[in-house]
Every structure is written in C-alpha cells, then in structure tokens.
User: Which sequence fits this backbone?
C-alpha cells in the first residue's frame, strides 16, 4: 500500500508521520502513536475502524532518561507487540510527528525482536524511511546497548 508519508520498512510494517484526517487506516490491524503525550492525535483516533488497535506511547524526541526513564519500558513493550503483529502477518503503522525518531526507535526495536541485530535494524530503517530517521543519539545508543542481551534471549527461546 502506497502512502506519501508512510514507508514500508518490511512486509506488514510501516513507519511514518501523522495520519491525515482523510487517510484510510482500515488496512492496518494496529496503529502505534509514538508522539509525545501533549499531541493527542485527535485528527484520526476518533475515526479508527473497530478492528484497528491503538497503542499510544507518549515519547519525547529527547533523552528519555530526562523524563523519568520509563520511556524505555514503553518503547520495549510496544516493540514486542509490533513484532508479534508483524510476525503473524498483521499490518502495523508506527508513527510520530515526522516519522523519523520516535517511530524509528520502536520500529528498529521491533526488528530486533524479529532477530535483527541493532546495527542492521538501524541501517534498514534509515534506508527505507529516511536518512534522518534515528538521528536521535539517545535512541540509537539505547538500541545498540540492547542488542547483545536480546540476541541471547532470542537464542534461548529457539532452544526451548
């Protein structure tokens, strides 16, 4: 599905900016709003079709540690859900305002839950979304730090 403000990162996973009031969101099974909490997304949330799930993450495009540090848990939990949906062939749109950093950290982390290394996930998001995607150094450092432990956890799950 083509949309000028959304990029297909991998099959079933889209990243982009804020949906416009007239955008058709019925092709998605899940929409993730990664914009900061002050931005409510009222231009589309009230008209989501009943089958479309919504997760509001509430991220600032700054150092999440400056906002109590709980953002890392929200990112991680949301990325797990996104990876689950994508893994069963469900369409997911992850957006923030511009569709670069907040959405990018969730998308890259979801790719990591699908077995990608942090480096590959970051490069893929930049290549398929925009070169400025994941330009927030706090987000990229966090993704790179999470890689080794996640790879070990995924390997243990495969053994079971």
Assistant:
């Amino acid at each position: 599905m083509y949309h000028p403000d959304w990029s297909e990162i991998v099959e079933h996973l889209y990243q982009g900016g804020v949906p416009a009031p007239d955008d058709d969101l019925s092709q998605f099974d899940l929409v993730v709003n990664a914009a900061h909490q002050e931005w409510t997304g009222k231009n589309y949330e009230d008209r989501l079709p009943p089958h479309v799930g919504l997760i509001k993450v509430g991220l600032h495009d700054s150092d999440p540690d400056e906002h109590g540090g709980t953002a890392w848990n929200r990112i991680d939990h949301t990325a797990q859900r996104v990876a689950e949906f994508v893994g069963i062939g469900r369409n997911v749109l992850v957006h923030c305002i511009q569709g670069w950093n907040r959405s990018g950290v969730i998308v890259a982390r979801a790719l990591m839950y699908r077995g990608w290394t942090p480096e590959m996930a970051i490069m893929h998001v930049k290549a398929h979304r925009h070169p400025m995607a994941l330009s927030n150094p706090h987000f990229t450092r966090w993704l790179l730090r999470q890689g080794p432990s996640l790879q070990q956890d995924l390997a243990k799950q495969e053994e079971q």
Q: What stands out?
A: The longest helix spans residues 137-159. The chain has one domain: 6-159. The helical segments are 71-87, 102-113, 118-128, 137-159.
